[in-house]
Predict the structure of Cation-transporting P-type ATPase N-terminal domain-containing protein.
Amino acid sequence: MTKENYNNLKAKQRSASKVTLMSTSIEVEPVRFSGIDISSITKLVKRKDRRSHEELGGVAGVATALETNVEDGINGDEDDISSRQKAFGSNVHGKKQPAAKTVYEFALDALIEPMILILLSCAVL
């Protein structure tokens, strides 16, 4: 896909269509990312499904469906990012990792093990 074709496709998708009803003009936002949905992306990424990749048209097809450029990436302006977040959600990990244990916490965990307590009590006797 050439850069010119990509830019023409992007310009067509961004232009809002106007519908006139009884001399009232209403602006309708174009639907973005109609060629791909979250389940397709999940199949493609998590399951590494080659068939889904081929159905979407390979790398060029996925790039076109996601309205991105293989070489330059996404546009990155605020409207572009907000529409991507609206369509696909934010790119954040839902689970927080637990804080790392200190040496003292490891020692305390080891001291309260039943076998260690038995051995310590035998050593005292």
Q: What stands out?
A: The chain has a mean pLDDT of 76.
